[in-house]
Amino acid sequence: MSDKLLFDRIDEPGLDTIEVYMRRGGYESLKRALRMTPEEVLQNLLDSGLRGRGGAGFAMGKKVSFLPRGAMDKYLVCNADESEPGTFKDRELMQKSPHMLVEGMIIAAYAAGANRSFIYIRGEYELQAMKLEAAIHEAREAGFLGEDILGSGHSQTLVLHRGAGAYICGEETGLLDSLEGKRGNPRLKPPFPANQGLYQGPTLINNVETLATVPHIIKMGGTEYAKLGVDNSAGTKLISISGNVQRPGNYEIELGMKSRDIVYGLAGGPEPGREIKFWFPGGSSSPVLTPEDLELPYDFDSMAKAGSMLGSGAIIVVDDSNSVVDVALTLAKFYRHESCGKCTPCREGTNWTVKMLQRIHEGDATPMDLDIIASVQDQIMGNCLCVLGDAMAMPLSSMVAKFRGEFEQYIEEKRAAAGFGEMPEPSPIAIAGAA
Amino acid sequence: MSEQSPAVARYGHGSRIPGWDDSVDLGKDPAPVPDPATTPVPPQLREQIEAAMAKYPNFRSAAIPALHAAQDLHGWCSPEAIEQVACVMRLTPGYLTAVATFYDMFETEPVGRHRVYVCTNISCSLRGGPELLAAVQQAAGEDPDFNVRGFECLGACDIAPMASVNGEFVGPLELADAEQLVADLREGREVLPEKQLSRRACADPGAKAQAHE
Amino acid sequence: MPRPERRFVTFSIDGREVSAPEGVMLVDGAKYGDVEIPVFCYEPKLGAPVGACRMCLVEVEGIPKLQTACSTPVKDGMVVHTQTDRVREAQNSVIEFLLVNHPLDCPVCDKGGECPLQDITFGWGRGISRMVEPKRHFKKPLELSPLIAIDRERCILCYRCVRFSQEVSEDYQLVLNERGASTYVGTFDGHPYVAPFSGNIIELCPVGALTSRAYRFRARPWDIEGAGSVCTHCPAQCNVEFTVRDERVLRVLARDNEGVDDGWLCDKGRFAYQAIHSEERITEPLVRDSESGELVPATWEYALDVAAAALQAGGSKTAALAGGTTTNEEGFLLQRVVREALKSPHVDSRAGLPQVDLGLQQALAAPGLQATIPDLEFAHTVLVLGTDPIDDVASLDLRIRKGVRRNGVKLAVATSRPSALDPNAKLWLRYAPGGEHAFVAALEAAVTGSGDLSALCDAADADPKALEALAALLKDGGEDVVILWSQRLGAAPLPALLNVAAALRLEGRDGAGLIEVPVGGNGRGLREAGVQSNGGPGLSAPKAPGKPAREIAAALASGDLSTLWLLHADPVRDYADRRLWERAAANADALVAHATLLNDTLREHATVVFPAESYAEKEGTIVNLDGRVQRLRVAIGRPGAVRAEWQVIADLSKRLGLDLGVLTGPMATRQLVEAVPFYAGLTLKEIGGRGVRWQEREAASAAPAAPAGPVESGEPLPAPRPNGALRLGTYRPIWAAPEVEVSPALKFLAAKQQAELSPVDAERLGVDNGAKVSVTAGDATVLAKVFVRGNVPAGTVFLAEATAEQSATELLGEAPQLVSVEPYGQRPPVPLEGLARGARPSDDEVNS
Ligand SMILES: Cc1cc2nc3c(=O)[nH]c(=O)nc-3n(C[C@H](O)[C@H](O)[C@H](O)COP(=O)(O)O)c2cc1C
Ligand code: SF4
Ligand code: FES
User: Fold this and answer.
1) What does this chain do (chain A) (predicted)?
2) Does the Cβ of C144 fall within 6 Å of ligand 2?
């Protein structure tokens, strides 16, 4: 057996067709799952220790078990929005092995008792949408979707839904609103989707990679799968590496691999002569880590202990040719642009942060502004409706904290260049009324 | 909705956001759900929208697919296009405007038919995304057939800096590719075939998952 | 659907034990412990909380993150802190963020002094801003509609206004466009936000972003007073608060009354106050000068003398009609004078609609058979029969939508004209105009399973399948069924309606029953006060039956009656058969009127016109649809020489030899209460600010009861068949009213005549949307602009009644009728001699 699961011979020609997929043993897991009871399938998922691959890392089996039992309209939604900067693993998987996702979804829906399922794919993934549409069609023709699948009594529809360009639709409740035909504003939680999700019905939402892993869990058995990886981080993980590395791309690793082996070993490290300045271990929303942190094993707990997170498994490497201020500004602009605007701290906080960083960029700032930037991040964190606000505040805080010296130097140099002269005394502006 | 002015004009008045400074036109009637008797809808569009509506437990879910279909037909989500969708879906045009303006891929102003989204997000910007955008913009010039936009991460950082050209991902691009890209589109050729992501193998082969200890 | 029961739970807030109803949100629960939690986006009237503004963050023990108090229900044993450093820090932050882009233009902002943002900044803000970047500045104020100005700089994106448009009025016209910091409140492609309830967003806006164009810069909160009263513009009788400055009404706000309006006002109720201060308001008595033939100002004494003499001369040949803002007291006194002093039995308030047998009226008004307005929201099934609430009783439209949206009420709509509620209905049915009787009889047949359903459906031109579905819905959809029916159905269908109610066992069931939509703001009260030809006070039998309005018109025209006395009534405009009424007015020996505005009829025919009080100047009572007696209170002084109506009637009565014994308004109320058995003991104090349903008082036992068995429902006439000619259906648009026409703000909405045609008929006639047509019945013609509507049933044309020009009442005779519709202007027009006042309308009039 290959040491890879999801990306095993991923480039094999024709793998996107049901013929090749089945020749390689595809849909065997589905048949096997349908011979089990939904509870047994769920037990396998619980045993596997599989944690969500979309960002939050919530145990998948547990999430399935949160759905109420009993006859009612339940839904499974696959989150294929993949818009977290630096993340592109789902894209390759859907494009090259769409049936793996379809099979995983049927098994997961069976375990959850959901009869209607949807894939919400970001609008920009046109090729991948076509491949999936074809795969769904083939699966339906083959009797893997529809009424009474393989005589199991389980019926399921699967609809591919294309988004139209909005990062917030990756957030699960924003996704649900968008899938319901509305603006993709996140919803208040509770109620959680497991109780009241799509069309007010219990809904299981999982990432593409999470669901695509399900057939492998069934094939290997949950406990066997759990042996892969390390404690609390079972299994293999698709890693997207990008930025200043020599071999950017997707790699499947076993969780717990040393970060340096990923960045330098697999991706080749930065261009010769360059040093790594910092890296995002889990997409642009994760607090940045320094080169020393490359010694850490790459798994959920280690990243959390280092003050960051594994997130979507997207490593972005920034080398010393780049200014931290430029990266911060690019980052902040992204979140400002993607804030849905529903809640105050996120809408105004991201906007204000960009304005402050722009002032730094233009040479019209003082180091006091760094304190305000840091404080504004604190004011955002934990106060928003969803975690998009935090997703900017966390990495930005980490940058200002870890690279304050560089920020200050940048401020001085830009000030001098822009001719703003001596730094003035800070003077907060009083506003009417309150004291 | 792409970022336009990098610098905030300190004391500049006036809106940088389309719509902010707009008053309604009191000469117009209010805009309720369009009456089918007086709102002609091209039959193939109606068919597409109705097929989409049938796919979901709640027809409203078809809003985005319907807007995609209308945009494909009209080139942009024009008021007329939105009215047609509204008429078939029995929603107000206002509802659909709100939806259309939320998403980056819906154009609510007329645009050129060649969609070129150049990624300017982190990974691409670390490898020259903004410069690439400028180069493509320059190559396209004032050509009204082009809709060149800076875009957020398109999920292809492995080929950074990259662009999505009428939906086809191409990269890694060099500044010199900009001219070629525009020329290919103008001539109706396949765009930078050797750089198309769809033909690219996975980066993984070198990877070795480590055995569990 | 049973209303949720309230159980109390105990929780701790800021160290205090507080008990509050289970399930209420913390923001509301906190109030039980006198703790105020600041909010912007939270407004329970708008539905589920959205948690957008983040102003209400509090600490709940056991939950790591701060929680939004607006969306966290109180639970037993919960421990909440609103004063900790963490909470204060969060509050300060949210305010700082809100003010990042909010202009500090409070000195010139209309909201200044009554602005939640100001107040909350003061109470919960840090008092400084660290933002040195420029704020956004945009053009302002901009027009959002002729009624509303929008100042986008000031908007804090709290979602209230758009939620109103989308989740309360459901017009879905006002939306948020774009996203993130670019989000703005707007409409589709620059169309104005014009919808019947649009004005509510002004009141909802917690900042000065949405302001009333009529109120802008008229007053500051510290120089105005609020005066609570009731709106009389339609039978919904929404509760209002007048904003008064220097004896002028400057604004009307909603005065939330769950039993009546649920806190919303329609734009007529909100803006038609302008009619009170209109130039055209009559402020002194007018008497027709015998030499010039013109109405000229006169002293009260002279006017009263002339009027008394005219009435005296008319004696038993006098007829009196009341309507509009007439209170119960005024109606009661009026009928006393007419019946007792003039010895005439001819009083009516039914707007020319058919007289309903008194026994039937008593049965329909039996307390056990009455549903309440809130029942519309909690019933299992609601049937709306023969009325479109948006036109006939505006705010109920919102109430019905709310029931469907929030409580899953199953709505059925049965009307001849497509209804605004159709899209919300589980089931909508159409019948032909003129087929009302047959339709209700068919419903009876379907519900009871007896009678010839298919023949009746045929007569009504209704779909028998749909009727069966309706019957099934009413029978099997749950016991709490409310039928909202219109007085405009006429008299013939009512026995069948009563039988339907009996078959569904609505009598005596809480949460179920009938609600009648009367025509006229106080239609129900006037009937209960005895202002009808066949009913005295308390729905008693009068000594002698009089003629109903229609017969009064005929009798005046023929000379059988000689004198007409009008109390806030304008039969020429409002009642069917305009031309008959014109003849009646012209032929009357004398016409005495109490009116606030002059109209052509009065200008040409009135003998005396008394300046009448507007609803803001009146005191007295009126009765809501479900029997809620409400109180009008004086908000402003009467302008000019205007006197209280009860006083004018009493003065006239004295001159006619009858001392009514009324020296004050409350004395009139006392007389009324004594005369109506089921009002017995009612006092103004008891009515108070919220009103009281008489059915819920002990005296209700004095009301007549419903008959035990089924009543004879009669043989319905078939609706006319369209045979090339079209059926005529009519309706009265909400905007067809003089107060709309004289209010500068509302003028633009004044109803214009339009012919609603089905696409089939439009094509057959070869007319496009917007073309002109003439609609002819006999020798009468009305000109109208074509409005092609996909959901108008083929074979019928709908025209508006009571428009200032070209009203459908020109065409309405006694019976339902067929009209011929012709393109206008292409062929030589049909002869127009029959038109009122002989003048052929100009093209401008048709187009305007
Ligand atoms: C702003 C934001 C963006 C997100 N984008 C994505 C995304 O693109 N794809 C995804 O799978 N999860 C995304 N998530 C995480 C989802 O909310 C959710 O946790 C995930 O889909 C659950 O699937 P999993 O348990 O399989 O990871 C995002 C979350 C946030 C707050
Ligand atoms: S205009 Fe007012 S009500 Fe509407 S979103 Fe803005 S602040 Fe809220
Ligand atoms: S950053 Fe450009 S594709 Fe991801």
Assistant:
1) NDH-1 shuttles electrons from NADH, via FMN and iron-sulfur (Fe-S) centers, to quinones in the respiratory chain.
2) no
Domain boundaries, chain A: 18-227, 233-319, 324-434
Task: Output the pLDDT for position B1.
Answer: 38
Mean pLDDT by groups of 10 residues along chain A of 435 residues: 84 97 97 98 98 96 96 97 97 98 98 98 98 98 97 97 98 98 96 96 98 98 97 96 97 97 96 97 98 98 97 97 97 97 97 96 93 97 96 98 97 88 55 38
Residue in B with minimal Cα distance to C770: B38
- Six-digit token string for C92: 């300060």
- Domain presence at residue C711: no
pLDDT of amino acid A434:
37
Whether the predicted pLDDT of C828 surpasses 70: no
Say if A82 is an interface residue toward chain B (CB within 8 Å): yes
pLDDT band at C800 (very low <50, low <70, confident <90, very high): very high
Q: Which CATH architecture group holds A18-227?
A: 3-Layer(aba) Sandwich (3.40)
Is the Cβ pair B30, C192 closer than 8 Å?
A: yes
- Which two structure tokens, joined as six digits, stand for C224? 């105005």
For residue A187, give the amino acid letter: R
Domain carrying residue C224: 134-276
Residue C307 located in a structural domain? yes
Mean pLDDT rounded to a whole number for chain A: 95
Domains of chain B: 43-102 (1.10.10), 114-199 (3.40.30.10)
In this prediction, residues C596-619 reach a mean pLDDT of 96
Q: Which residue intervals of C8-166 are DSSP H helices?
A: 26-31, 85-100, 116-124, 160-163
C216-230 mean pLDDT: 92
In this structure, CATH architecture of domain A233-319: Roll (3.10)
- Provide the number of structural domains found in chain C: 5
Q: Are residues C143 and C259 in the same domain?
A: yes
Dihedral of the CA atoms C184, C187, C192, C194 (nearest 10)?
-110
Torsions phi, psi for A360 (to 5 deg):
-60, -45
A252: phi then psi, degrees, rounded to nearest 5 = -100, 125
Backbone torsion region of residue B193, taken as left when φ is above 0, otherwise alpha when ψ lies between -120 and 50, otherwise beta: alpha
CB contact under 8 A, A164 and B158: no
How does pLDDT run across A24-62, given as a tens digit for each residue?
999 999 999 999 999 999 999 999 999 999 999 999 999
Q: Is residue C721 situated within a structural domain? A: no
- Would you state the structure tokens that stand for residue A307, as one six-digit string? 């003050």
Whether domain A324-434 has CATH 1.20.1440.230: the reply is yes
Spatial contact of A355 and A372, defined as CB atoms under 8 Å apart:
no
pTM of the shown model = 0.94
| pLDDT tens digit sequence for C723-779 | 889 999 999 999 999 999 999 999 999 999 999 999 999 999 999 999 999 999 988
Tell me how far the alpha carbon of residue C736 lies from the centroid of ligand 3, in angstroms: 60
**Ligand that lies nearest to the alpha carbon of residue C207, given by its number in the listed order:** 2
Burial B73-104 (b: 16+ CB within 10 A, else e): ebebbbbebbbbbbbbbebbbbbbbbbbbbbb
Which DSSP letter does residue C296 get? E
* Torsion angle defined by CA atoms of residues A287, A288, A291 and A295, in that order, rounded to the nearest 10 degrees: 30
State the DSSP H helix or E strand holding residue A107, giving kind and residue range, or none if neither.
helix A98-112
B37 close contact with A: CB closer than 8 A: no
Residue C637 half-sphere exposure, CB side, CA atoms within 13 Å? Answer: 6
Same domain, C364 and C508: yes
Q: Where are the alpha helices (DSSP H) in C26-84?
A: 26-31
CA–CA gap between residue C470 and residue C440 (Å, rounded): 12
For residue A316 the two structure tokens come to 């972005």
CA distance A18 to B12: 59
pLDDT band at B3 (very low <50, low <70, confident <90, very high): very low
Q: How many whole angstroms separate alpha carbon C505 and alpha carbon C698? A: 23
Whole-number Å distance between alpha carbons of A280 and A288: 5
